[in-house]
Write a structure and sequence with these properties.
Layout lengths: L2 E5 L6 E6 L6 H15 L4 H17 L1 H12 L3 H26 L3 E3 L8 E9 L2 E5 L7 H12 L3 E5 L5 H13 L7 E3 L4 H9 L4 E5 L2 H14 L3 E4 L4 E5 L5 H13 L9 E7 L3 H13 L17 H16 L3 E4 L15 E4 L6 H4 L6 E7 L2 H9 L3 E2 L1 E5 L3 H10 L4 E4 L16 E2 L2 E2 L4 H6 L2 E9 L16 H12 L5 H13 L1
Parallel strand pairs: 5-6, 5-8, 6-7, 8-9, 10-11, 10-16, 11-14, 13-14, 16-17
Antiparallel strand pairs: 1-2, 3-4, 4-20, 9-19, 12-13, 15-18
Helix pairs in contact: 2-4, 3-4, 3-6, 4-5, 9-10, 16-17
Bound molecules: nicotinamide-adenine-dinucleotide.
Length: 507
């Protein structure tokens, strides 16, 4: 029996041995899921919401215990476990409970004149079994938000949480049990990439993936072979632009938070801080002071915790070391050669960054704040867009017109003016990336409808004997010509249109 060793990254302690889902069990997971779909999909949305309410109550009741599990599994600080992982999950549940019925109700749409006498609607039909594969950085939120949306829309779900944070995976499995979800409606498969790969090969009806670009591409390839629709939420290298007219104090605090929250292991963290040259030195001074005042340990007061995944620490180390070898300057933090064996990396500020460095081009996913000066608006737009990624961006300026103008030119899934990351917290906004940052959108209405087939319904009461465009065609060409020309010409000719229409009706 394969075992996943759940290690606390901050202490190095072994917390639990978690049994991996056997490859042979995966077929049965799908069989159970399809069986459960037959009844779950037939429940009313209100009935499904009833289960979500139970889940919400359990999470609210057990919030403190869940926070401890997240902290021990990820090394993040307790405040961030509760504010950035648990709260967004409950908020998404709350929004879903309040709005799902309305969002998934059949929607009447307009019917054009040439379909006279009919009614048109869009109905939402669940897809079937949804596979959700999630990462380790926000192990609760990034797993449960898509799961909740898929469930309320009438799908059953197989969730594969990250093997890097397996006790959160186990905890989520328990939460669904405590909320009394019927057998087979939500199942959790524990394991790493082999389990993930096997799950994608078993032909789910939809794959919702959050993780790296590298894995996203593998999943998209497997999905393409079976024409399985996907949403891919991938990495980022988000630009953070500070113009000279910005509220400098606010921008500096925002930059420090956006670069170091969750030890920088955020898909939307600020990874390239562009600062207008005239304020560069002053801004650097404030950012350095703010950074050096952060508390980094395992206490409840801590601002920064440890890294979660040893492999990620190595990526950060490699990128920082390479940048320093290529001429970058270390303003604060420790040279990678001096890092100890622990998973804590002191927050780093780097300057003298050039666009050809790996640290400028590749996702770092660590507590690194690289600062780059710019002179003109055009230059900074080009620099910001000079990336394979396009997830989120921030612009700090007191000139709203300029802010909106620059925002329009950034190739990005979201842009936030005078703030950071918050676009993800508003469930009325779509969330997702451009370029290598992903395919598709979720949250809010998008988050529900992606898990449904949008079914077009046309209703005719069936009283008339025939339709205009039905057989026979004999003698109708000239009449249709007149009908369309009278209707679509710049100056609509209603008299000719009606006369021709009635004539065609009588044919
Ligand atoms: P990862 O791609 O290594 O793993 C993600 C998940 O995929 C894990 O559950 C893993 O077990 C599974 N997996 C790995 N190989 C697989 C395969 N061949 N088939 C099926 N499943 C497989 O990513 P990670 O290291 O867990 O997460 C970090 C990455 O996620 C970063 O790049 C980050 O930017 C990105 N991310 C994106 C968002 C977003 O919303 N855009 C949010 C958080 C994290």
């Amino acid at each position: 029996m394969a075992i996943i060793k759940a290690m606390n990254p901050a202490t190095g302690e072994l917390m639990a041995n978690i049994e991996e889902t056997k490859i042979e069990q995966i077929h049965k997971l799908y069989a159970d899921s399809r069986k459960a779909f037959a009844s779950w999909s037939q429940l009313s949305i209100k009935e499904r919401i009833g289960y979500l309410k139970q889940l919400k109550s359990v999470i609210v009741l057990e919030m403190d215990d869940i926070a401890k599990v997240i902290v021990n599994d990820t090394g993040k600080v307790p405040t961030e476990a509760i504010t950035a992982d648990i709260m967004p999950t409950i908020d998404a549940l709350d929004q879903t409970i309040k709005h799902a019925e309305k969002l998934l109700a059949p929607k009447k749409v307009k019917t054009p004149i040439f379909l006279f006498g009919k009614k048109s609607l869009v109905e939402y039909m669940p897809r079937g079994v949804v596979l959700v594969i999630s990462p380790w950085n926000y192990p609760l939120q990034l797993a449960l938000v898509p799961v909740i949306s898929a469930l309320v829309s009438g799908n059953t779900v197989i969730l594969k949480p990250s093997e890097v944070t397996p006790t959160v995976g186990k905890c989520m499995e328990e939460l669904f049990k405590k909320a009394n979800f019927p057998h087979g409606v939500v199942q959790v498969a524990h394991g790493g990439k082999e389990v993930g790969a096997k799950l994608t090969e078993e032909k789910p009806d939809y794959i919702f993936f959050t993780g790296s670009v590298q894995t996203g591409k593998i999943i998209q390839e497997v999905a393409a072979k079976q024409l399985i629709p996907t949403t891919l939420e991938l990495g980022g290298k988000d630009p953070f632009i500070v113009f000279a007219d910005a509220n400098m104090e606010r921008a500096a605090k925002a930059a420090v938070w956006a670069a170091f929250t969750n030890s920088g292991q955020v898909c939307m963290s600020a990874e390239r801080i562009f600062v207008e040259r005239t304020i560069f030195n002053k801004f650097l001074e404030i950012v350095k002071k703010e950074t050096e005042s952060l508390i980094q340990d395992r206490s409840k007061e801590a601002d920064i915790g440890s890294m979660t995944f040893p492999d990620q620490k190595e990526i950060v180390k490699r990128q920082v070391r390479a940048a320093l070898c290529e001429g970058a300057q270390l303003i604060t933090g420790e040279h990678p050669d001096d890092w100890d064996e622990s998973m804590f990396i002191k927050p780093l500020i780097l300057t003298n960054i050039t666009a050809d460095m790996e640290i400028f081009r590749e996702e770092t996913f660590g507590p690194v704040l690289p600062m780059i000066p710019f002179d003109t608006e055009e230059e900074v737009i080009n620099l910001a867009n000079q990336s394979e990624y396009g997830l989120n961006a921030s612009i700090f300026t007191s000139n709203m017109k300029k802010g909106r103008r620059v925002a329009r030119k950034l190739i990005s899934g979201a842009v936030v003016l005078n703030d950071v990351i918050v676009s993800v917290a508003n469930h009325y906004l779509p969330f997702g990336g451009t370029k290598q940052s992903g395919i598709g959108r979720y949250h809010g209405e998008h988050g529900l409808t992606i898990f449904c087939h949008e079914k077009a319904i046309v209703v005719d009461r069936g009283k008339r004997m025939r339709e205009l465009q039905w057989y026979p065609y004999k003698g109708t060409y000239e009449q249709f010509l007149r009908l369309f020309q009278s209707y679509f010409s710049d100056k609509r000719n209603w008299a000719v249109f009606l006369k021709t229409y009635l004539k065609l009706l009588k044919k």
